[in-house]
Specification:
The complex is a heterodimer.
Chain A (H helix, E strand, L loop, with lengths): L11 H12 L6 H7 L3 E11 L2 E7 L4 H10 L2 E5 L4 H13 L4 E5 L18 E9 L2 E5 L7 E3 L1 H8 L11 E6 L6 H18 L6 H14 L5 H17 L8 H14 L4 H29 L6 H23 L6
Helix pairs in contact in A: 1-2, 2-9, 6-11, 7-11, 8-10, 9-10, 10-11
Chain B lengths: L18 E6 L5 E6 L3 H26 L5 H8 L4 H8 L3 H7 L2 H5 L3 H11 L3 H5 L8
Antiparallel strand pairs in B: 1-2
The chains are: A alpha+beta, B mainly alpha.
């Protein structure tokens, strides 16, 4: 059996990549993986509906953490999908027999070890299978504190579910991982990219403009019925907190990344300050979530102006973090 | 957020699990802390679940009253909607809406029924009947 060490992470995709790299001798924390893969973002896509609610994202597209990290660290990852379920099942067993571990994309809904109240139809979950015994597969699901088990039938159902972002049995594993990576140039490149994207995205739906756009949409809830308004507001908070973001829609995890990056650059003052500012921004997002939760529970009229203003001020605070980051040059 | 202010609200939605939250310890070092729940998050999760349960309950009554086929209830029962069911089966929405009619669903082909059964994780006979949920 594989000597695999499970570790508890905030997010599935960065957690899987961190554990997988560590297993193969490259020690990168989850925040480091998240930061280097340019995972942080904001997007509000009112025309793209999921379960009747618009898409609101605090992170980049599913699978982009794997892809960007691969590119930025010059890893070689093998990704395999299957049109035939049996072949996909056999391939997983084959890899395990060879003593390998495999990352899988799966649905959340069909994984029986998820708590009943957390089971939603989301098909871009990630986990690692590191072994097998008579009851089923041994799984390291990063968002769980301890490793879990899953029977073959359920796992197959979760891997071969159809629909939006269908996993098609996707499994992935590294073919080449450098023993050592010079992180400095990658850090410079990735934090600048994130900061610039957040500040300057030309489309109104993404980056800081997306935050402002969402704030405007909150004001417009005035004309909608109260039940819908509450569901819409609740949906924002779910995307921010419920789906495994490490708190405050990945802002805390990004603060952890900036802090780690500062250490690599000999305790760089600019990065330390940026990390501290990002932690504060995270606290503001949590206050925003709390404000919404109270409004949902209250019988009184929702103060949409207050909630919208809060969001606008968060956008302004976040802008300061990215401007701070752009002061960093790294001297490499 | 500081490590000692990470909420430990024992949210029922976590079902005794812990989530990893990043927070700063007394030295300012940001690290993972296991959280047993946060009341604000619990509120919005429960709100979403409540909405899904109400949809399923309404659907159940529509089926009971003979307005809709049992397929309509089973779709909501597993937290899907028309869009998700359409994507999960590859069937056009309008053809699914047709299958929501009791008389049409009664005469559904075995092949089509099996596609629904697979997508909804039910046996064909489960799909064709309405469970007794009066105890819930």
């Amino acid at each position: 059996m594989n000597k695999f060490e499970h570790s508890h992470a905030a997010h599935c995709e960065s957690g899987v990549m961190s554990s997988m790299l560590r297993h193969h001798g490259l020690n990168l924390s989850e925040p480091m993986v998240f930061g280097l893969s340019e995972g942080l973002t904001f997007a509000y896509l009112p025309f793209l509906k999921l379960g009747g609610m618009p898409l609101i994202a605090y992170r980049s597209m599913p699978k982009s953490i794997i892809k960007t990290l691969t590119k930025n660290l010059k890893l070689t990852m093998k990704l395999e999908t299957f049109s035939n379920q049996e072949k996909g099942e056999d391939r997983l067993d084959e890899l395990l027999d060879e003593g390998k571990i495999a990352g899988l994309q799966s649905s959340v809904y069909w994984l029986p070890y998820f708590p009943e109240e957390m089971r939603f139809h989301f098909n871009a979950h990630n986990l690692i299978v590191y072994g097998k015994d008579e009851d089923g597969y041994l799984i390291s699901d990063p968002v769980f504190e301890n490793s879990v088990k899953c029977d073959k039938k359920s796992l197959s159902k979760a891997r071969f579910v159809k629909g939006v972002m269908a996993p098609k049995g996707l499994l992935y594993y590294p073919e080449f991982i450098p023993k050592e990576v010079d992180l400095k140039p990658v850090i410079v490149k990735s934090i600048k990219k994130t900061a610039k994207t957040m500040l300057n995205t030309p489309v109104p739906i993404a980056g800081l403009k997306g935050i402002k756009y969402l704030a405007k949409s909150i004001l417009k809830l005035d004309s909608k019925d109260k039940r819908y308004a509450k569901l819409f507001l609740g949906h924002i908070v779910r995307m921010q907190e419920e789906i495994g973001t490490g708190g405050a829609g990945f802002r805390y995890i990004y603060a952890a990344f900036l802090q780690e990056a500062s250490e690599i650059f000999n305790h760089d003052e600019v990065l330390i300050e940026a990390s501290r500012l990002m932690l504060d921004v995270g606290d503001k997002w949590r206050e925003f979530a709390l404000m919404i939760a109270k409004a949902i529970k209250s019988k009184e009229e929702i103060n949409l102006k207050e909630i919208s203003d809060k969001l606008i001020s968060i956008g302004d605070e976040e802008a300061k973090v990215y401007k701070k980051i752009l002061e960093f040059h790294g001297n490499i | 957020m500081n490590t000692d202010s990470v909420p430990q609200d024992n949210s029922s939605t976590y079902a005794d699990n812990k989530k990893a939250i990043y927070a700063a310890d007394t030295d300012g070092k940001v690290k993972v802390v296991g959280s047993s729940g946060w009341s604000a998050e619990e509120t919005v999760t429960k709100q979403a679940i409540e909405e899904l349960r109400n949809q399923a309950k309404d659907a159940y009554n529509d089926v009971k009253n003979g307005e809709k086929s049992s397929l309509y209830y089973h779709m909501y029962d597993i937290r899907m909607d028309l869009q998700v069911l359409s994507e999960s089966t590859g069937f056009f929405k309008w053809t699914i809406i047709r299958d929501f009619k009791p008389l049409i669903f009664e005469q559904i082909s075995q092949k089509r029924l099996l596609v629904y059964a697979d997508a909804l994780g039910k046996t064909p006979s489960e799909l064709k009947s309405l469970p007794d949920i009066s105890r819930e």
